[in-house]
Amino acid sequence: MTLPDAQPRTRLHTRKFVYQCYLRGDGLWDIDGELSDIKDYPYTLHSGEVPPHEPVHNMHIRLTVDDSLTIKEIVARTAHAPFPDCMQTADPMQAMVGVTIGPGWRKEIEQRIGGVKGCTHLRDLLSNAATAAYQSVSAHALHARLNDRNSATTQGERPHFLDKCMVWALDGPVVKEYEPHFYVSPSSEQRK
Questions:
Q1: Neighbouring residues of 25: CB distance < 8 A, sequence distance ≥ 6
Q2: Rounded to an integer, what distance in angstroms lies between the CA atom of residue 70 and that of residue 96?
Q3: Distance (Å, rounded) from C-alpha 172 to C-alpha 161?
Q4: Do the beta carbons of residue 17 and residue 27 sit within 8 Å?
Q5: Are 124 and 106 in contact (CB under 8 A)?
Q6: Considering the entire predicted model, what is its pTM?
Q7: According to the 3-state scheme, what is the secondary structure of 67-126?
Q8: Do you know which Pfam families this protein is assigned to (predicted)?
Q9: Are 78 and 89 within 8 A, CB to CB?
Q10: pLDDT per position as a tens digit, 115-160
């Protein structure tokens, strides 16, 4: 399935986020992220002109987390940015070491490296890394549990994704079938 045909148009800008996730030999996880902004035309900045198809922004992060998604290490690099001073924006990212990816993640980012304490684009990259972490670390743990014939459902702690999406509504058919331990009848007082 693709988007419907568009009106005639000219592409001017491409922003990409790419995340790759790795299980390390020491049991920790690396979430590598890259953000790039590319214009399809010569782009004039205060600091000079960026040729077409050259990055205006190109930034990388690596979060090293444990199984609980607590950040053990963070590395950030800026390969392309509008100003030479932008190359210094990686250092404030160290304020995120020790933070656990989970509820309040975006609030933690804003408190620790928000506004003039950090870089808008690195914050964007860091913020979206949470989904990649869930899709790798948490999904790997769930996959292992579901492949264990002795444990067909999570049955312990409530999975983070329940009641965060219309498909995973506690009173919906997907939860009823795949996570029945957490299912709540639509008429139940618990639902309110």
A1: none
A2: 10
A3: 13
A4: no
A5: no
A6: 0.80
A7: CCCEEEEEEEEEEECCCHHHHHCCHHHHHHCCCECCCCHHHHHHHHHCHHHCCHHHHHHH
A8: DUF2889
A9: yes
A10: 999 999 999 999 999 999 999 998 887 777 767 665 544 456 787 7
